Protein 1
Amino acid sequence: MAEILHYTFIQNALLAAIMVSIISGIIGSLVLVNRMTFLTGGIAHSSYGGIGIAIYFGLPIFLGATLFAIASAILIAYISFKERHRLDIFIGLVWAVGMAIGVIFVDLTPGYNVDLISYLFGSILAVSKEDLLFMGVLLLATLLFIHRYYKEILAVSYDSEYASLRGINAKLFFSLILIFSALAVVVAIKVVGLILVIALMSIPTYIAEQLSSSLYKMMLLAALLSTLFTLVGLLLSYNFDLSSGASIILTAATALLLFIIVRKILH
């Protein structure tokens, strides 16, 4: 088993898995406590539009997905402030229209023939140095954001009205959390794909929430659990020649099931 670590693509995959897992654990915790899972799902699937546009114009896939995801996050944030009672409808529209745009642009790309399953279910073994750089910058930005504005994030996440009364710009921080969620989704696409990305951000954070007494501890534990599930999933994927994204999510889902069963027995 140790000999596979000498391969560059395996080293890149492991490094990507660790960085994306930490990002997903931290941002997934914010998504959970802010009850934004459906919003993040809309952003995740709409980013396929950016993938299609990037393919059509010959741009880096990450660049197209990132710009489209950020635009979707800003749009959803704006709608949530103006039309909150109709938010679910608009998220559904962003979700569907984004994917439709992606499909159309891929269809319009002359001579383009690619396995789009890799975008839907991940292709972590194809991670490049540029991808790793993007992930590293996002991880650093995420850690700096949490470190610098933890008190504000905590206040906005649990009581936005109280935060506003304290002089905190709740709308700004809500928008920033959505944007970081969009960026987390983009990097997680490389690991588990569009279809499974929400599970990666939800399962470890749910378990962490049940075992934590604070948001800080929840983010830390979620990052550790996400890393564990991802590495175990990669190991299973390699040993049994399975899809890496699906293996990671099934590992996390199995852990969640065992956690629920043990918790019920103990209680």
Protein 2
Amino acid sequence: MKRVMGAALCALLAGGVAFTAHAETKLTIATVNNGDMIRMQKLTDDFTSKNPDISLEWVTLEENTLRQRVTTDIATKGGQYDIMTIGTYEVPIWAEKGWLAPLDNLGDDYDVDDLMPAIRSAVSKDDTLYAAPFYGESSMMMYRKDLFDKAGITIDGRLTWDKTLEIAEKLHDPDNGVYGICLRGKAGWGENMALVTTMGNAYGARLFDEEWKPTFDGPEWKAALDMYTNILGNYGPPGATSNGFNENLSLFNSGKCGMWIDATVAASFVTNPKESKVADQVAFTEAPCAVTCTGANWLWAWNLGIPMGSQKVDAAQKFISWATSKAYLELVASKEGWANVPPGTRMSLYENPKYLDAAPFADETLLAIDSADPINSTLKPKPYVGVQFAAIPEFQGIGTTVGQQFSAALAGQMTVEQALSAAQASTDRTMRKAGYY
């Protein structure tokens, strides 16, 4: 009898151990160190309280580092991460390669049809989501109304880059800690290249011609890079080559930027009096044009995806559904106010009077997102999809290299002509090696 009871007890204990192991599914989530993602981490008690069998481990990284880590991990099937924060550049390429699991079980109340068409299309393949958008963005200008008024500057219609240069010169007052303009100078295909490529578009440039040959040796790119190095080099903050999104956000919020052209998602932070010293003095307008407005503002979304082959797909989809749902927007609104919910992904948000009343930037954000067209984003025909990038596997390396060359031109380490020549040569080598021509 004792032996029978002992065997039964052992079986019960063994079953208990198995149950405990099954009950504790740990999700490792790689994400970018942007404000909306930091806020999400602080709110995840709401998720874990509803899903006590799932625990979360965060790996929060600077933008360039995140891209390198997740790309290496998914390409080598490293398995370090259960959920990855990835952009609209990676999703279609990785889905085509079979690297991402389809998101086909987000729940009956997820409402996929509420996702903005441009954003949904960018993260879908054959009408199936391969990543869920956490927030969407375009780019626009944020500026200090008080400084504009003091200088007697009014905005009548969409600015050109030439007019923006004139304004930057008038606002530039470094002796009093105010710089005419803040722009991305940090090298990276998703850092300075995100901005400079839209400037190139505005000047009539494109990354590749219809034969996939790079065009950095053309006059359009010369005009764009001349403007970039001139306006930021002469009327921007010192050390601009170290400044990406977060660094410029800090500068703007501390009152040091007369203008800042960057992601529309910054709007909730620069108007938040808890974070910005100039919250009550911020206004918004469209990103500048030049010879055209086509492609002058980018289109992007940060999304949550699951690597193919993951053993935790069900748990990962539960988390992704929670983080990108309508209910999550309500949660953020209840804790932080409607102005601070992640923007740019759901159409219903821009029909919500509570949001529209709380977010003075809502109309400009929607206008910018709606006007960004990844297919028709250049004045001349192009063979690639993407506004501020080309959706081909080679672009990540190309953009990083060219971004370093443009950053060197901004720092005065080479001339604009030398930077463009180097960009043309390095990109030509890459495209030839890849067999494009």
